[in-house]
From TrEMBL:
EC number: 5.1.3.14
Gene3D superfamilies cross-referenced by the UniProt entry: Glycogen Phosphorylase B
UniProt source species: Pontibacter mangrovi
Alphabetized Pfam families for the sequence: Epimerase_2 (PF02350)
Stored SUPFAM superfamilies: UDP-Glycosyltransferase/glycogen phosphorylase (SSF53756)
Molecular function terms, GO-annotated: UDP-N-acetylglucosamine 2-epimerase activity
The protein's name in its UniProt record: UDP-N-acetylglucosamine 2-epimerase (non-hydrolyzing)
Keyword Isomerase in annotation: yes
Length: 372
């Protein structure tokens, strides 16, 4: 009998990191009947990824609401997934990472009796307020999951400390690197119209790429980040700061208010994944609070300043390609300027390495599921 697999995700980063798994399961139709369910916790930003990877979900809950809150979103996901789980009756449900979709889908799947497989398991800060609510989303999912696909040895060790049975943990690398390695050549060979326009706009300027969206930075944190970017732009008029602005209204408002009129800051809509990885590659330095961007940048040899106080991804910090600067205005400005001016330090941070994977994570995940 074929095993029934349901892959559930809802936001942009989950979609990028689940896409290689969705595609690989399609090569095993003798063993598995696999289906995709999107909660659409994100809408436009999810659809951009589905289009690039040519994924057509079997179920689409279409849940996103403008300025949604965590309580309603959590409840809606659990309630709406119930009937999908009853119709399809999966043996295994795959969830990814630490979003509200991840946590709520794990709960709904547990209630339905399906086995829960957690991709990108075991990352921890042990601080329930940072990242909020992702740290607790990931811990709850870890308690529920039957199988844990940890990207690194450090994440496996976190799970062992929580008395998770070792035989249920597999170190796979992060599927974000599978997606990156599968996509980056395509992007170089066949650049999109957006890349051509951006390329002309950027000309030969040094580019500082910025992304940001974390809930714990909403409010004062974002005010400080934007003020730091404005100061940086004024102190370094020859650089271009390019910022694809996340669609969350709590991000859009301060970013547009503080940065719209600054001449060497380019604010753009969230970029399609293929355009964003082109832009990462074109950039000199990346300032971000994103989890996925922290993982991708070392594979592209780009230094990253992380605008957070903690990270559940310590591997690149230990290797020296990522520095934590928090949302401290002075530190963001001084560390960026130092990297722009101090060539020796910059080169030391540019080393190419892949602490988060070798591009074969999905292969390892499927090989493990075949043994069950
Ligand atoms: C969510 C995840 C976060 C993840 C991030 C990736 C939770 C609690 N948060 O944060 O872990 O790192 O996604 O980007 O799970 N919006 C749109 N269109 C979109 C996407 C968002 O308009 O395609 C707007 C909507 O107004 C929406 C709001 O952004 O209500 C917030 O979206 P939500 O998914 O709740 O939070 P994020 O900040 O995106
Ligand atoms: N990304 C993208 N377009 C953008 C910004 C980011 O496709 O304009 C990609 C990026 O390559 C990475 C992922 O989105 O794979 C990170 O998503 P995000 O920062 O929203 O979430 P996080 O990783 O922090 O959960």
């Amino acid at each position: 009998m074929k095993k029934k697999i349901l892959i559930i995700f809802g936001t942009r980063p989950e979609a990028i990191k689940m896409a290689p798994l969705v595609k690989d399961f399609q090569h095993y139709t003798d063993h598995f009947e696999s289906k995709v369910c999107v909660t659409a916790q994100h809408r436009e930003m999810l659809d951009q990824v589905l289009e690039f990877f040519n994924i057509k979900p079997d179920f689409d809950l279409d849940l996103m609401k403008p300025n949604q809150n965590l309580s309603n979103l959590t409840a809606d996901i659990i309630i709406q997934l119930k009937s999908i789980l009853e119709i399809f009756e999966p043996d295994y449900v795959f969830v990814h990472g630490d979003t509200t979709t991840t946590m709520a889908a794990s709960i709904a799947s547990y209630y339905s009796g399906a086995k829960v497989c957690h991709i990108e398991a075991g990352l921890r800060t042990q601080n329930k307020w940072s990242p909020f609510p992702e740290e607790i989303n990931r811990q709850v999912t870890g308690r529920i999951a039957d199988y844990h696909f940890a990207p690194t040895k450090a994440s496996k060790n976190n799970l062992l400390k929580e008395n998770i049975e070792e035989s249920t943990i597999v170190v796979t690398g992060n599927t974000v690197i599978d997606a990156l390695l599968q996509s980056i050549e395509k992007v170089k060979v066949n650049p999109s119209p957006t890349v051509k326009i951006l390329s002309e706009k950027l000309n030969d300027k040094e580019v500082v790429l910025v992304t940001g969206h974390r809930r714990e930075n909403h409010g004062e944190g974002f005010e400080r980040i934007c003020k730091a970017l404005k100061d940086l732009a004024l102190l370094k008029p020859n650089i271009l700061i390019v910022y694809p602005v996340h669609l969350n209204p709590k991000v859009q408002e301060p970013v547009n208010r503080i940065l719209q009129e600054v001449p060497n800051v380019i604010l753009v809509e969230p970029l399609a994944y293929q355009d964003f990885i082109w832009l990462m590659n074109r950039s000199k330095i990346i300032l971000t609070d994103s989890g996925g961007v922290q993982e991708e940048a070392p594979s592209l040899g780009k230094p990253v300043l992380v605008m957070r106080d903690t990270t559940e991804r310590p591997e690149a910090v230990e290797a020296g390609t990522v520095i934590l600067v928090g949302t401290n205005e002075n530190l963001i400005v001084s560390e960026t300027i130092d990297l722009l001016e101090n060539e020796q330090r910059y080169n030391a941070m540019c080393m190419l390495h892949n602490p988060y994977g070798d591009g074969k994570a999905t292969k390892r995940i499927i090989e493990y599921i075949l043994t069950l």
